[in-house]
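yo

u said u wanted the structure for the complex thing, so here. seqs first:
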Amino acid sequence: MISLSSPEHTLYLPNPETGDTENLQSTIEIKLALDGTRRTYVRSNPDRLLSYTFRLTRAKALELEVFIENNHSKVFRLHNHKGEDWDVQFITNPFDFVDPGPNETTINLQFQGEQV
Amino acid sequence: MALRNSQAYLGVLGKAPGIMRVSQAYISVLLRRHEFGGVLSQNISFTSDFEAEHIPGSGDKFGDVEQTLDFVQDFDGLNLHQYVSQSLGLTQDFNGLNLHQFLVQSLSFSQDFDGATLRPVVEQDLELVSEFEAIHVGPVEFDNTLALTDDFNVSIPVPVEFGHVMRFYNPLTSSYEGLDDIFSVTYGVKNALIEQTLSFAQIYGLAIEVEWSNELELVDEFGLPIVQELVFAEDWAGVDSKALDNELEFEESFEFTLDSNKLISQSITFSQTYKSDTGANLCEYQLPNPPVLGKATLTLTYGMTELILRNPIFNNTTRKGYTRIQRETRGGTLKIFADPIWPKTTTLIYSIEALPNPQEVLDFLEASLGQQITLLDHEDREWIGIITNPNTAVTDNGICRAECQLEFVGELV
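structre next:
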C-alpha cells in the first residue's frame, strides 16, 4: 500500500501496477579535448524520479483528484510499497484519469523528490 | 343485518383509478320493542386489494401508485342497558419488492368512544401495530414515525372497577418498547373527575452503517383520583457512528394514603444530553458524490441545436490541468509554485463509435465552432465548455459504424 501525506491530508492508494520506474536526476556532460582527452562534467542531484501507474476504483480516483487539487504544487511525504519514505512533488501535469472499465480508473503519476 | 360488497380492479397497461364507497346505516328506533330487546349485531366487512406488476417490454411503466382506504364506523347508543360490544379492526398491508420510487405508507387509526349513563362494565382496548419490511440492497434512508395518543375522560358517580391496558409493539426491535399504561381505580369517589392523558412519540432517524438499538419504556401507574401527568421524551439521532449505548431511566413514585383535600403537587424534571465527538480534527475533504452511470448517452446542446450520441467507449479520459511554474535551481533543486487562484482546466476526451449519422456530428461541430455548449455526459453531469478539436476526423467505417473523438474543455455546472 502507498500513502501520500501532506500536512492536511493523508491518502492511501493500492500498490502500483508492475512496471514502476525510478530514475536518477543527475546529469553529465561529456567534453572531448583536441588531444582526445575525455572529460565529464557531473551535475549531481539527490532527487529521483518515481513513476507509478495506479488502478483505482472510481471513488478512490475522486479522492486522489481532491488530493491533487490541494497538493499539486506542494511537497508531501510518499510512503511507497517498498517501505521507503520520500519527500516528493508531482511532476505530472496535466493528470489523466482514464476509465478503462466500469468503476475503474487508471492514472500515471510521476513524483520527483529525495528519499528520507 | 350484514352488507358485503367487493370490487376488483385489474390494471394491466396503465394507471387507472378505482374508487368504491360503501355505507351502511342502521337506525334502531324503527325497530319494534321485542326486536330491540334481542341481540343486535352489525357487521361490515370491507376489503380493498391492489396488485400492480409491470411486465418488461409491455410499454410505459406505472406511475405513482396511490391506495387509500377510509373506514369509519359510528355507533350511537343512548340509554342502553344491555351489553354493548364495539370492535373496529383495520389492517393495512403493503408489500413492495424491487421498488425504486419514493414510498409513503401511512396508517391512521382513531377510535372514539363517548358513553353517558353507561353501566355496568366499560372496556376499551386500543391496539396499534405498525410493521414495515423492506428488501433493499444498498444504502437506504428510512424514516418510521409512530404517534399514539390516548385520551380518556370519565365521570364516575358510582363505585366502579376500571381496567385499561395499552401496549405498543414495534417489530423493528422485536420488543414491546413503547408504552405500558396501567390505570385502575378500585373505589371511586363520588363526583370525582379523573383525567388521564398520555402522549407518546418516538422518532427514529436511521443513517447508513449504523449499529442501532433503541429502547424506550414508559410506565405510568395511577392509583388515585387525582390529576397526574407524566411526560417522557427521548430523542436519539446517529449518523455514521459506531455502536453507541444510551440509557435513560426515569422513575417517578408517588404514594399517598390519607384522604385529604390538600393540594399536592409534585414535579420532576429530568434532562439528559449526550453528544459524541471524535475529538480529532475533522477531515476537510469535500469529496463530490461519486457519479453513476446515467442515461448512457452524451447530449450536446448549442442553442436550439441538440446532438445526442452514444456513450463513449472505455478509456474515456478526464484530464485535470493546473497552471503552475516549475523550475530547477542551479543546484538542481526542483521548485514548483502555483497560486490557488490560477486557472485549472478540466478536459474530457471521448471516443465515440457506431455513430448513426456522421453528418449530424459535423453539422453540430460547424454550428458550435468556438462557442460555449452544454454537455450532459453519460454520468448525468452537466458541463459547460467548448469543443477544442472541431477538426476531429469523423471516420466512416460503414453503415452505422462511423466514429470520432471529441475533446471538451469546460466546468461542471
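Helices of chain A lie at 58-71. The mean pLDDT of chain A is 93.
cya
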